[in-house]
Predict the structure.
Amino acid sequence: MKLLWRSPLVLAAAVVLTGFLGVSLIQKAGAGEMKGPANFEFAGGGQGKVVFSHEKHAGKNPKCTDCHVKIFKMTKGQRSAPKMADMNNGQSCGTCHDGKTAFTVKDQATCNKCHLKS
Ligand code: HEC
Ligand code: HEC
Ligand code: HEC
């Protein structure tokens, strides 16, 4: 019962927060034709910058809701600032980058799949 009326509230809050652009993106994504926004970079904390590509993720995670808004916010200019500690605990990017769904964040051999050396 609680869940039933809470989830529309959560949805409504998400819609307000993401604003008009976000809303129209979600609606189009529902129709299955929308791409995520352009690539963006995280500074990478001295390990080499990390480029996140919506396009490269779209193949295996076709639904925007695979990531939004439970794992990542969708608010322009308010990045969630992922931390390795969270990823190593299976949160943030580590929700999928756990060695099962996608390459792990814990193996020295795969650090550089995310952290690009300049
Ligand atoms: C594999 C995970 C993933 C999927 C799937 C995904 N996104 Fe994202 N998206 C992210 C991450 C990570 C961010 C950055 C959020 C942060 O730093 O808090 C982001 C940010 C955004 C932003 C904000 C961009 C900005 O400049 O601030 C929008 C808009 C967005 N996504 C739309 C979409 C849409 C539309 C889809 C479906 C077509 C989608 N996303 C699918 C991970 C994903
Ligand atoms: C919803 C699950 C999911 C989340 C969350 C996610 N990824 Fe991924 N990612 C994948 C999958 C699946 C692949 C492709 C499988 C593989 O290469 O092992 C992938 C591939 C990648 C690649 C390789 C892309 C290429 O082909 O060049 C990079 C880099 C990457 N992810 C970075 C990130 C970063 C950074 C985050 C967090 C901001 C993130 N991912 C969050 C599922 C996810
Ligand atoms: C799935 C992509 C991904 C993989 C794999 C990955 N990282 Fe990261 N890492 C990130 C992202 C995203 C950040 C956040 C960067 C930022 O906010 O500027 C980060 C940040 C960091 C930081 C900065 C401090 C912190 O805790 O946020 C360090 C140090 C780091 N990574 C080391 C590593 C090492 C060592 C490995 C391999 C064992 C690794 N990373 C593998 C995505 C990844």
